[in-house]
Write a structure and sequence with these properties.
single chain; elongated
């Protein structure tokens, strides 16, 4: 008898071509399982219960972390940044732009539930007899968005500008008889 290996010389390349990108992780996992099994059976399966608590420790830490109560978020009250920005109302629900929306809704021009203010104005401009009137709302809407979503909000001057520009636009809209 003669011993010889029938494995092709290019076996490693052929094997790697068919392997997935996860095969190295699978191989490592298989090695870990093999080493644990080898360790277990070398000890003849005796005295392993004393090591069982090692597996329980990480599990216990995960459970404690999962059910640990989270710290509540506290509002600290009035904050100012650089003395010019008042950040007491984060939601901007008192923005004057909502008066424009209310006026237009009262005129029968309603905004769809899923429609942003920007998209609503684009739609209004396309279908309104005086589209230039809605171009004037772009800078007002920009101030509204800054007031509504910018963490530092608007300075007092820009807040006044939002109010005056909105009132001015509403006057022009009402004079146009819309």
């Amino acid at each position: 008898w003669e011993n010889f290996d029938t494995t092709p010389s290019a076996w490693a390349e052929m094997e790697n071509q068919g392997a997935s990108s996860w095969s190295s992780i699978s191989d490592i996992w298989s090695l870990i399982k093999f080493k644990i099994s080898q360790w277990w059976w070398q000890r003849n399966g005796k005295g392993h219960l004393k090591y069982l608590w090692l597996a329980a420790v990480p599990l216990l830490l995960i459970i404690i972390r999962r059910f640990k109560p989270k710290k509540p978020v506290r509002k600290t009250g009035k904050r100012t940044v650089g003395g010019t920005h008042d950040i007491t109302s984060f939601d901007g629900s008192d923005s004057e732009f909502y008066l424009v929306e209310k006026e237009l809704t009262g005129s029968g021009i309603t905004r769809k539930k899923s429609e942003t203010l920007t998209n609503w104005l684009i739609r209004l401009k396309r279908h309104h007899p005086v589209p230039s009137l809605f171009d004037e709302l772009k800078p007002i809407l920009k101030l509204h968005y800054q007031y509504r979503f910018d963490p530092i909000g608007l300075s007092k001057d820009l807040r006044s500008k939002l109010k005056s520009n909105t009132e001015s636009w509403l006057d022009r809209y009402r004079k146009a008889g819309m």
